[in-house]
Each structure stands twice: as structure tokens, then as C-alpha cells.
Design brief:
With 302 residues, the protein is mainly α. The protein contains 11 helices and no strands.
Length: 302
Amino acid sequence: MLKYLEKIIAVFVIGIIFLFLIKGLTTNWSKIPFNELHFNVLPLIISFFFLMIHFLNYTKSWQEIMTGLKERLSFSQSFWILSTTQIAKYVPGRIWYMVGRVYVGKKQRMDSRNLTVSMFLESGLLILSSSVIFLISTVIIGNYNLRYLLITLILLIIVVIVMQPGILMKILNVFLKIMKKETVALSLSYLQILKVVIYFFGLWIAQIIGFFFLINAIYPLPLSGLPNLAAAYTLSWITGFIVLFAPGGLGVREGMMTLMLSPILPTPLAIAISFITRVWITLFEVAIFFVGLAIRKRQQPS
């Protein structure tokens, strides 16, 4: 009964968010600068190119993590496993894409504990790296007050400290105990962890640049607006990731992105961009899913 109640509440909250967004779009329709809108195919193609760079960074980061955990994983294996299991994130809750990756990984003779550890590392590094980019972006935008500078500095220090293998292992084992899993000995060196962090920053930067080209495919936005886009993109992702009831951050991410883009874009256009961004990412993930299936089929002929 409680499970169904949670689903009903989740659908209700997501519906309310979309209702407000659609109402804002229709109410302010006249404020859309139609004379400035255009459609340019080249920036759109470039935006997908940067999404691919993002995914290649993501693929390499997981390969490096698994290699550090003493698992044999090729780049192509990492690619097709990630591309074919990440679709599960559109199911409510964060657990399903994890379950899917563990299941597929075990089929490839990987240790389930190492697979679980890798995903905890991945989630933690994604949140830390996106938070750092968000805070740095807000400082560049013009929030040079002591609060933002202090938070950014503290977060950077935390990132450096947490990346120490001994500290990271203790944090991971706390989460594993909570999940009633066996504790692990982390075999990643500090240098290996820092190398993985670079890939995570790389995947965020690629997405943000792709996001910039996506907007410029329909509306002219100068490079000076890039820090605003970085802040909007990372904070909307963080919010969507934290809110577990929304599959893939649906609704929550669009609402936060609209709020963050409103200072640099007309509100109705900011709302439209948030919806377009969802379609953009989904189309890419569906396409990469089929690419992953093709790679898997080629590696494992029947």
C-alpha cells in the first residue's frame, strides 16, 4: 500500500511541476522573441558531437574505476554495458540502473561487490564534480561574495581530502554496511582516483558545451552566457539526481533549469529550452543504447 502511495505522490508532484511550466509557457507566449528565433542544423549536430564526447569520458571513467578495482574491462565492454543499462534510470528510484549494471556485469564475470563499489564511486564523483563546476560558475557569473567563495574553496578541499584512498574506502564501507553488503578493500591509488576525477570534469564540460550549441541552434546566445548555462545545467542535474521519486529527474530537472535560465533568457523560452534539453538527452541515450547493443552483438556472436 505504501509503495503505491509513494508512486501516486511522485506522479502528483511531477504533474504539478509540469502544469506550472506549461502554464508559464502559455501565459507568457507573447514574450517569446520569435524574430530572434532560428533553426540552424550545424550547431545541433555539434551539440550531439559533444554529447558523444561526454559519453566517451563517462565510458573511460568507469573503465578506469573497474581496472583500479582489479577487474578486466575493455573500453568497448564499458561502452556497451553503460549504454544498455543507463536507460533504467527512467524508472523511479536510483536503484534500477544499478541493479541492471550489476546483473550485466556479473554475466561478464565481474565481482558484484566491485560493481557496487564502482557505482558508489561514480555517483559520489558525479555529485562532487558537478557541485564544483556549479559553484565556480556562480563565482564567474558575478557572485563574488564571501559565501560563494568560501563554499567553493571548502568543497574543493573536501574533494581533495575525500579522494585519499583510505578515507574514500571508509566512506564506501559505511554505505556498504548500511546496504548490508560486505566491506571492501579499495585498491585504487590516489593517482588513479585523480585520473578518474579528470574524466568526470571532462564529461561535464562536454555536456555544457553541447548544451550551449543546442541553444544556439534555435536562439543566439553569446559565449558570455556560458557560466550561466554551466550553473543551470549542473544544478538541475544535481536536483534531479537527489530527488529519488522522479525517474531521470523528470519534471524536477526541468523546473530547476527554467529557474536558472530565466536571468539570461525570456521565461517562456527558458521553459521551452528545458523541455528541448530533455528530448535532446533522451534521443542521444536511445541512439547510444542501440549502438551499445550493436557492439555487444559484435563482441558476443550467437
